[in-house]
Structures are given as C-alpha cells and as structure tokens.
Amino acid sequence: MENSQRNxxxxxxxxxxxxxxxxxxxxxxxxxxxxxxLRIVEAPRFFEGMLRGRSIFEAQHITSRICGICAxxxxxxxxxxxxxAIGLKPSKQTTEFRKFLLHMENLDSHLLxxxxxxxxxxxxxxxxxxxxxxxxxxxxxxLRMKKICNDVCDVLVGRHIHPISSxxxxxxxxxxxxxxxxxxxxxxxMRKDMEATVxxxxxxxxxAFERDTEYVGLVSDDAEYPMLIGDVGSTDGVRMNKKDYxxxxxxFVVPHSSAKHCKLSRESYAAGALARFNLxxxxxxPNARKVAxAIGLKPxxxxxxxxxxAQLVECVxxxxxxxxxxxxxxxxxxDLKEEITVGLNENGAIKVKxxxxxxxxxxxxxxxxxxxxxxxxxxxxxxxxxxxxGQNCNNIEHDMKKLVPEILDKSDDExxxxxxxxxxxxxxxxxxxxxFLDVKFVNR
Amino acid sequence: xxxxxKVAFFDFACCEGCxxxxxxxxxxxxxxxxxxxxVEFREVMSEKWxxxxxxxxxxxxxxxxxAIERIxxxxxxxxxxxxxxxxxxxxxxxxxxxxxxxxxxxxxVYGKDFKFFETVPTQSVPQTVKVDYLIHGxxxxxxxxxxxxxxxxxxxxxxxxxxxxxxxxxxxxxVCHYQRGITCLGPITRAGCNxxxxxxxxxxxxxxGMVSNPNQNGAIDVIKKFKIPIxxxxxxxxMYNKCRExxxxxK
Lengths: 444, 251
Hints:
The structure holds 2 protein chains of 2 kinds.
Chain A: E1 8-12, E2 22-29, E3 32-40, H1 47-51, H2 56-63, H3 71-86, H4 92-122, H5 131-134, H6 136-157, E4 166-167, E5 170-171, H7 177-203, E6 214-219, E7 231-234, E8 239-240, H8 245-249, E9 252-254, E10 257-261, E11 269-270, H9 273-280, H10 286-294, H11 307-332, E12 355-363, E13 366-374, E14 380-386, H12 388-406, H13 412-425
Chain B: E1 6-11, H1 17-23, H2 28-35, E2 37-41, E3 53-59, H3 65-77, E4 78-84, H4 86-89, H5 102-110, E5 133-135, H6 142-154, H7 165-171, H8 196-199, H9 216-225, H10 230-241
Parallel strand pairs in B: 1-2, 1-3, 3-4, 4-5
C-alpha cells in the first residue's frame, strides 16, 4: 500500500518500562497525521498544594516523595530553593557532598534505564526477566552496579530512596574515615563493571532518526560539568539566572491538549543527559570523553534515541568524578563539626526570614526547578515544582510528529515499538509530573 | 516456571520508590525471582497476565474513583493481597491532601483547569479492600520485605511489630532527640524499621503508622516536660497519618 493511503492507529495504554502512567496515541488517516500525543494519565498527587502551611524544613522530606528514582535530586533542588529563600549559604564541604550525592543518583538512575528499561528493546525481548536466562552475566552485572550506588548512598545519607541525612543546612550525619574508605572501595570495584558496560553499549544499535531541537540545562563559566550549580542555558544561546526559570519553561496550554507544555526559543526544547552533553561535553571527565569518542557521540547530537548513549557517557563521568570528590576528602579530612542537629529547626539553629527561593538542579532526566515562597517563620506560602519530564513532553510529541511520517512503510507493530522506544529514550518519569492534565478529559 | 506462585505488582498514587527498593536488593533479587513467577510488573515488564493472581502486591494510595474500581477488581482476582509501603498501608504523605478541601487543593495546583481532575479524599488500601499482609514504611525496609514474603510463601501470618520505634532506637544506642530539644515521633510510631532515620541523625516522621495503643499519659508528660506546642506535634502526625481520620473507629 502506498504510504499516502496508509491508516495507522496506535494506542498504547499504560506504556510499560517507564516510571509512572502514560499513553501514546497516534492516528494516521490516508497518510496524513491527525493525532500524535503522549497522554499523561498519572493520578495527580497535589504536592504543591500539600506543601502550603508546612515548614521549609519539612519541604525536602515531603518533596523527595515526589519520585522514588530521583529522590536525591528532588531533595537537593528542594534544599537549594529553601536555602535560597531564607538566605542560607551552604559550606564548601556540604556543597561537595551534595555534588557527590547527585553523581550517585545519576549513576544509579542511568544504570536502571540502560540495563533494565532500554536494553530489552535493543535485545528484542519484552523485559529484563527473560534476560536472566539468556544474558545472566549482564543482568547480574546490572544489579551489582545498582546495588553499589545504593550501598554508597546508604553510607552517605542513610538510603538512596528518600535520603535521610541530607537536609537544609547540611548533613545530620557526616561520613567518618572508615565510611570514606567503604564508599571508595565500592566505587573502585565498580570500574571493572563499568568497562564491561561500555563494551556492551558499543554493540547496541540505536534507531536512526534526527530532529534538531533546542537543548536546555545548567551552564557555567568554570571547568566543572555543572549538575548542582549554574545558570540556565540553551544550545540556542539563551543564558539566564535560575531565578528567571519561568522565562525558561514558559509553561503553556495547547488547544489539542491541556497538558502543560514548555518551550523556549522555538517550538519545543529537550532536557536530560543528551542536553547536558550537547551543552557541556568538553567539561566531562577525560574517561567519559574517551567513551563518547569511542561510541561516536559528538555535540551537537540531534538523535533523541541517543539520550541513552549520553547517559552511558555520564555514568563514566559520575563514577570518576565521584571518586575524585571522595579522594579529595581522604586528603583533607571531613570536618565533623559541621554535622547539624536541626530537627524542624525547633531550637532555631538556622536563622529564618521571609523570602522567595529557587532551586535549579540537574537530575537524571534533566533540569529540575523547585520554587518556594516562605513567610518570616519559614512557613511555605506557595510552592512550584517543574519537572524534567514535563519539560520534555512537548519535545517528545514534536519528535513523534516528525518520526511517524518517516516510518509509514513499516508495520503497525514496528511503528508502535519505534514510538515506545522513543518515549522510553527520554526516560520519562511520569509519577514526578504531578503537574499534568489527562488529555482525554479535554475533548469531552 | 511450573507451580511457582504467580505474583503481580500494581501501582496507584505513589512515587514508585517501594518497587524500586526491590531492584536495590541487588543479586539477592534473583533468589527472590527464583521462588516466584512475576506475571505483571508494569514499571519493568511489558508482559501482561489475564488470569488470577496468587499474590498481588499493591503500592500507592487510592485517590480517584477509577482507582477504587481498579483495586476492587484486583482484589477479586487475587488470593493474597499485600499492601506495600506507607502510601498503601496508611495513606502516607498523600494523606496531607485531606488537610484541605478537594476544591481548594485542586485549584491551588491546577488553577482554573482544576475541574479536569477527578479526585477523592486519599484513602489507604485497607480502607478500600480487605488486605492480607501489611508492609509499612516510606520506603519499605528490605529485611522486613523478605520476612513478609517468606511468610506469604509459607502460608503463615505476619504480625507487624506493635511496639514503639524507641525500643529499636534504644538498642541502637542513639541519644534521645527529646534530650537534645527536638521532637520526634518515635514514641508513638510502630517499630520494624530498626530506627532507620534516627540512626542517621534525623527524627522519626511516623511513616510506619501509629502503634495501636500509644502511651498517652507518657506522651502528655513528655509534651509538658519539654514544653512542646501541641500544634507542632499534631502537624507532624499529619504528615503520614492523616488518613487515620477515615477510620470509623477513629483509631
């Protein structure tokens, strides 16, 4: 059949192997694309509403519960916004440990995505479960690497999912000499597995597809690959202070869907590992740059499927830069006097004032914004969280609109798989996206 | 895969962190997977199952009319149903929504479009359907998960500890937060987490729910002795335990 007469109807309900609930709906009539949407059907949880009236010192504890995968990222964005609001500057030591924590989460999340969520597609199976028999060493390696990230977080912050000791002001418990040794030896052990991961990834074939878009993430003037601190910038040359985040995200409602979309200089933008790579590849750890060269990943890369490849490059970076930070503490020692006991700041250990603060942190799926307005007692009056998946949603739809006409000669099943893989490549974290409307309500 | 029990995971309103705790078991996960046959687990599998489940593991709170219908259908198809994680067992942080009227909370997040969102006051899984096993915690504590799964596979009951977190905290030799001038919910919260948060320098937020018979007089003494404002304690208890108010008995 000629593509010009082709009818395709794709309706993937509850897309699997992503975090949270989303549907893909595509409708092609006589070769013409009528509908192409990523519908978010997650039950809204109203975090921003629930935060009102609660202490700024509880915000981190509550918002880390937005997401089980990026609990540390939400924690750090929340703390940054809170400290910005009350005018508290964290110490150098605190900042370094926070950067280290972000590395561990980035590593953990990317490994989960590469091995358990994406690899099954590239190896032609429905989940990692059949791989337990067919690729046992690969599955064992994935679980071993994930466990190391988790064990390191156990030592540093009590646990990875909903970290305990990282709060406004610093850490309630700091690592001792033996803790540094434990974490370092775990990470040294991971290097062998990381080499094997890179070798495996080099054999995986990603679909060919290009769509030039704007890439958004943290940028800075120093030599560090910015994850925790920086301005917000884009590959189209935008650069703004994080306080102006609303001018970056420009959330808007589109007629065909009430899902809030984002755009900056053009129709849509992308955040995430590929965006960070495109903005800051020259600042990656040398070993990570070598891996990028070996797999042929160069900025500016405009194939969204290669977000997974960029994640692999970042894995190497996070492991090596994480080791560098800990080795630094081995030399200088950890100042345990900085350990804090604030509880909910009942004893007023931290001075509080009214204010408005913004946190902008690179989490595994892209840049995450938290914004709190607090009164003079540190009680939250208003909260706003803009999640990377929310920012990517519009870009995913534009990718789908370009992709579908290009693959109309394929079977319905192949088209569906290509679309599922595309959405999965962004590693969407839909349970985070507390902010979305379900499209199906709109057309009633 | 023969006669191994057919197990399925389902998620409702939650962060999916408790599912992820399973992946964080590391290679031990393969031992668990060797004893069961996972037939449905949307976050990591594309496979779906259309027969009955021997064990259904439910994560998340019930917050929409659709969710109420869905959990009832799952219950009908399941021999054993486990409420997994605080959002499921006690409503958890989702319960804070019940501090506000539904209209107010919807408007605060979604502005004029708020009516597009169907929502009901948050309820826990046991407040919606019959539950056979409870695994508390935000997130769940893996040693307890393994203990409960063993009990389920052996067909034995599992009794959630009904003494305070303080018991475990004392055994871990932590300095009591009250002695440091900080309020902590350990004295009224169910043990079973090995005082995880206090061991790491933070307070207990009550994520496992309250003991069935808290020492009320003791608590009043402590509140008086340390001059703790009653609103502060109440507010803290609301973080995870707001849904208790849905229980008819008021327990």
